[in-house]
Fold these 4 entries.
Entry 1:
Amino acid sequence: MEREVSAGGVLLRHMRGRWWLAAIEPQGRAAPGNKPVFALPKGLVDPGERPPQTAVREVTEETGVTGTLVRKLGDIRYVYTRSYGDGQRVFKIVSFYLLRYQSGRLGDIAREMRLEVRRALWLPLAEAPRQLAYRGEREMAAKALEDVRKDPDLKSFASPK
């Protein structure tokens, strides 16, 4: 079985008195009843790149905003069958990192990213663990929510190396 390693980000921003999470709606995916699918930005780790770098890059590419690393939240592991090419089963590991908003405008993404991302949006962090489509990503949002409940300014968490 082939293996893939990806990384993604849970980017948080404090505005209007509460925390928000940057999510994406991938192109070509819909839930039953044609409801939108909300996901976290993520992608394959490029050669020579470390997972934290990938998380920052993917968040910027897919949402238009940049963030600073706060800490690693955890890993998600699963098996999927490719829907393209060889249809092979793949064991995938996705490392997720907590990021804090630094700059940029949500949705300001390159034209070529529009092939992957229908739109980027802010979800209230308190609701994100219920609104994200994938179980592992909901767990990562719940961890981020727990972090801000412990430390509303995220100052006590060390940046990953």
Entry 2:
Amino acid sequence: MTSTRPVPRRSDATRASILSAARERFAADGYERATIRAIAADAGIDPAMVMRYFGSKEKLFATAAEFDLRLPDLAAVPAGEAGRRMVEHFLERWEDDETLTALLRAAVTNPPAAERMQAIFAGQVAPAVATLCPDPAQAPARAGLIASQILGAALCRYVLRLPPMAAMPAAEVVAWLGPTVQRYLAEDPG
């Protein structure tokens, strides 16, 4: 009897090796300091091979990016506090994880990075929103509205570093954005 399982090609192993090295290097050095040359050395290959498989550092990063937003259990939060808690959580994540900022920066101009950011929000935020919104069928739209607030604030605060947003204490950002996110989570649009 012959096996129907495909035999991994050498190119698959090389790609997997690059991704593994990239994840470790981005985690250790951050996006800005990680270099294609260092990632290639970690993978034991020539830097040209990294470029052959991924085309650019941004595309490699977008493919390698694995993020668990570690969203809190919003169902365990008092109903009127979920929006505030979600904004607090995202501010903590942005401030503690420069890789998330790097993904946002790359997502603005790089389609694979944008797709990765979309997948993260669709796969992690929408299900959390569905547990709270009055009509779970509205969860994707509500999650999109929440993403517009969260990603917009992150872009202004951590990427563009607009003085009012960058200098604003986190508690003040929460006070401004929390009620808006709360509205998206629980209120009817009408």
Entry 3:
Amino acid sequence: MFQLMRNIHLGLGLIFVLMALVFAISSLVIIYRPLLNTTPQDTETAVRLSPDDAASPRVAARVLMTAHGFKGDLRQIQEQGDTVRFRIVRPGEAAEVEYARSTGEARIKKKRQGALETLVHLHTNHGLWHEYAPSNLWASISLLASAGLLLLGATGIYLWFAHHSERVIGGILLGSGLVFGLVTLYLTRLQQ
């Protein structure tokens, strides 16, 4: 049993080390964002939508995606009289669209992020039901990696417990890590 657990532990560590690094680096970017130069590249364009396309925000977004190369999930649809606003978002890129139904004139502000902010978007991407297929793939990989990392921890605890001579120091380290994590979680919740 020890040999099997050791092989599972080693295999999971090798498989999910890159995923753990992505989350570690993106966590550091989230924490130290003010110190990093993560300003996006902004571009603005104007497009004319046909009256049929301008009638519905979903149809307008689909036209922009197919005819003008925008990709991502449709989010934050707001309709206020004749004006319609929405966003087309994917990791590392967001297009803010505003158009008037009566004229079909659309102004699009596109923000393209650098590699570090793209990692943050991947880190905070949630859910498995996106309109943008690569986001669904990433979410599935994240779910698999989360389960794999939990299993990696469980096999690590088993391997530690199997070494009788290291149980005391391992127990102290495991307990202090658990206390540190719970206290940190509690303190972050107090700040909100």
Entry 4:
Amino acid sequence: MNKIDPKLKKKLVYATNEVKNFLAPVNDISEDDARKIIKRYTAAIEGNFLSWMGGASISARSIVSRFAADENLWVELKDDHPSMLRNFAKCCQAEPDSQDFQHVHNEVMKIRNLVGELSGLKNITLMATLENTSVAFIPWLVELAKKLGCKDLTYTDVHGEADIEHADQFLEALTDEQSLGYDNSEKDIDLTINLTLKLLKKSFVL
């Protein structure tokens, strides 16, 4: 395993703690609000995550980064993770509608525009941030789903098991990607982490 830059790890630990701080206690969330959160998360992620991972794959300069993105993209496609998420939302009676898509629209568009720059550093940072912070929000989504009586936890089970490994994998990838001499790399990493946190906050905070 390649060395993980402790400064990058610190940034992603910070991001994960930020997510933990804005996730409301499940006992304080009504069933209606739990559905609203799952609707918004689904609207933000279901139709976008594959293309964002694809952007990371084609823009990464580092072989380590490209392998991480390609491997994750392969699993997402092979096991149809968008359908897993949709089935999860259905089971929670929380399929998104136009209001949910509109609610997250601005934050989603900022991420799409960032991915469209095809900066390997920014796109690997995006993936590293989502994979690392999911360690905080996936267990929280599980508890919201249980509150709603959802029995199909395939999506959260798969991501709960895999994302710890993927978090480290993308930290290693980001370390390698940054080492390739990007201009303003610290600024771009911080910008990407902050945009990702804003997307998650818009999805999870009522």
